[in-house]
Amino acid sequence: MENKQKLRQKMIAYREQLSREWIERASARICHQLIQLPAFRHAKTILFYMAIKNEVDVSQAMRVAWQEGKRVVLPRVNGSNMDCLEVNPQDELQKGNWGIPEPKNGKVIDPDQSDWVIVPGVAFDRKGYRLGYGGGYYDRFFSKYPHLQRVGVLEHGQLVPTVYPESHDQPLQQLVTSQQVFQIQKSD
Ligand SMILES: Nc1ncnc2c1ncn2[C@@H]1O[C@H](COP(=O)(O)OP(=O)(O)OP(=O)(O)O)[C@@H](O)[C@H]1O
Ligand SMILES: [Mg+2]
Q1: Does the C-beta of 165 come closer than 6 Å to ligand 1?
Q2: pLDDT 10s digits, 28-50
Q3: Mean pLDDT, 10 residues at a time, over the chain (188 residues)?
Q4: Which ligand ends up closest to the CA of 122?
Q5: Taking the CA atoms of the chain, what radius of gyration do you get in angstroms?
């Protein structure tokens, strides 16, 4: 637990010192990779996220999804859970409790209808585990909807040997970094 907390602080600091230009370049590469993956091409509904604080910005992939007629969904915090709301390009977003832009209105979507979930994070490891801000939102979400296909997106330096996963941590099936695409093999 202490290890996890220390790593979280260290990796938040790492991400903060990256320049805007660096993040933009990494984000462009990641989006370019994302939109070529079969999971993206086949998906009809994708759960995206809005980037804050030097997180990878996936809005370019979001625009491509709209252009291709896919349904774009964003999470909205509701207590300790996340609701999923459909968004269209012209829709207004407003900052929620965590400073994350969220849909104001919009159709609520059954999360199980998402064919692919794009997940941000503070750090990730090669087993597909992720470290977030410590709220446990994505873990609770994925334990409720275990069949969702999830891809983590990260600037390459956010890949670490281990994020010290705990039993409640829900792994991802793919990672897309600014340099590589990892398919996570199930080991246990
Ligand atoms: N399935 C679950 N049911 C109940 N509580 C959970 C569940 N998953 C996680 N939590 C709670 O969330 C807390 C924070 O989890 P963790 O440290 O893994 O956060 P995180 O993955 O970094 O956060 P986030 O997903 O919000 O970015 C855990 O200590 C745990 O109490
Ligand atoms: Mg977790």
Answers
A1: no
A2: 999 999 999 999 999 999 999 99
A3: 92 97 98 98 98 96 98 97 97 94 96 98 98 96 98 98 97 96 84
A4: 1
A5: 15
Q: How high does pLDDT run on average in the chain?
A: 96
Residue carrying structure tokens 């012209």: 90
DSSP calls for 157-168: GGB-S-----TT
Domains of the chain, residue spans: 2-183
- Best substitution site from 4, 148, 168 to test ligand 1's pocket, by max atoms within 8 Å of Cβ? 168
Give the count of beta carbons closer than 10 Å to the beta carbon of residue 21.
8
Tell me how far the alpha carbon of residue 146 lies from the centroid of ligand 2, in angstroms.
14
Q: pTM to 2 decimals?
A: 0.96
2-183 CATH choice from 3.40.50.10420, 3.40.50.2000, 3.40.47.10, 3.40.630.30: 3.40.50.10420
Query: Whose atoms come closest to the Cα of 143: which ligand?
Result: 1
